[in-house]
């Protein structure tokens, strides 16, 4: 039975990368309101909104591979959704887990990963549901749960045996400060039920779905960002400021990234790298050199590859975050969006407590979309995208969590081995990360709290007076933020 489960998992993973429907995010102004509402109305437990590629609340949208006029170029290769909401039945695929383990935060030794059971895994009868089964929102891997465990490798395996689960990966998380285990559910029990059952074991501290997150690019001349955020391109510098980027793989042969990448980490080494454009664009907008100069030339980019086909899972992202924290970076750029997950919230909170400035894309899923995370967590600077005339990108998420606006519509950026026109809150977030690197370069002792306050108090107000759900505090003004007193 175990061998059959492994074969099925491999078959689903292969199917995801070969036969999954191409559902791309788009900024297509021709979408009707009904289509937008449909796109934002589906959950992992729901049915398709229609038979023509109905949407999801993770950002997938119809219209991939189209163009809209005005010279905009769509890049479906960057935004193909390889992880559609799974129908009832077989488990959806998940990227392979990272091979290594992150060093522990304290003196405790990293536990040795426990092997998966060699025989059939049968859930014990009479398992108690210690809490009400959870209604899980957002897209998630339907046959896995993430659990932080108090105990050693033996305890991890005992929990697996007690609840009829498989240990698929195990590592010590620096930012969570404990052992993180990815358990497989081989018998088809709903994730919400398993989470409720695990609550009966006091050794399980936190229990969460393995949520799936999406890169936030809408499709797409000259980079107008310097002018709009009041940053003199001749004086811009992030020299020696350490910036972590969690994204796709990159093309480090692109001339715009020459000498920019300080180190790289692959959080999903068993998944071949096929797409490098999104990460290349984000890194280039932050610290690119040459003809495609970024906001903070001289900054040192620590790049973690955690996405393929525009998708990643919670355990992979947490591995990338732990690696970033170990590099002593000052800024972490997260140009992706997914559901609320307590493990991600804890990691972000602890990273902020270590003095890191966290910048995230607010999301491209439309004005009626649910909050996008990690952007909506406290202590994370949520960035929305504006155009060359300070107008809001129509497909931007809205809500009180939106913190600040920055250019992100139809900008030229490095892409693969060349360049392309890009649009999305992903790239607005990169602009803000680069701008913050300028502040830190000028005043290295400036705290994350002070930087956040300066951005809020000096932003150019857009829309209704004061902070609003569309533009946040307004358009980034880095010159004024640099002059603001602590």
Order of helices and strands: HHHEHEEHEHEEHEEHEEHEEEEEHHH
Biggest sheet strand order reads 6-7-5-9-11-12-13
Unreliable sequence segments: 1-118
Mean pLDDT: 80
The number of helical segments is 12
**Strand count, sense and closure of the main sheet?**
7 strands, parallel
SSE-based structural type: alpha/beta
Tertiary shape: elongated
Count of DSSP strands: 15
Write up what this structure looks like.
This protein is an alpha/beta fold. The protein has helices at 2-18, 33-39, 76-79, 153-163, 191-198, 225-228, 277-287, 314-326, 342-353, 425-442, 448-458, 478-483, and strands spanning 140-149, 166-173, 178-184, 204-215, 242-247, 261-266, 300-305, 311-313, 331-334, 336-337, 357-361, 380-386, 404-407, 411-415, 418-422. The strands form three sheets. Strands 6-7-5-9-11-12-13 form a seven-stranded parallel beta sheet, with helices on both faces. Strands 1, 2, 3, 4, 8 and 10 form a six-stranded antiparallel beta sheet that branches. A two-stranded antiparallel ribbon has the order 14-15. The N and C termini lie far apart (62 Å). The model is unreliable at 1-118 (pLDDT under 50).
